[in-house]
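Bumping with the actual sequence this time:
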Amino acid sequence: MTKNFSKVRRLPGFDKDFKKLLKKFRTLEEDLKTFIEKQLKLLHKLGIDNKGCARISGLGITYPEIYKARKFACKSLKGKGSASGIRIIYAYYKNEDIIELVEIYYKGDKENEDRERILENYRSK
């Protein structure tokens, strides 16, 4: 099996979001691992776009590429499949082959990504 990415990092804000959601969705740790190994590998390594992740436009950030994952299968949300309502915002550093997890949220709690947080993290890079 090929190694997926040279590094996968979590920003502190992501960890905070993740811990909160983990109380509600017990399978999240395993689901996230599967998401990185399958979904992100398909898109960034194999060039197969299954429309599960979309680049976020209008941020004024050219590098790294910032994506929103709309298809995230969460086993704790029975019967929902990949339309679980959980969204992940991440940055992809193509040159360094690094995935950086920025934000995770449940659409039932919050409608959209925190654009301000994204800009705070990547505006100066």
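The tokens above came from a reply further down the thread. Strands lie at 7-10, 53-55, 65-69, 86-93, 98-106.
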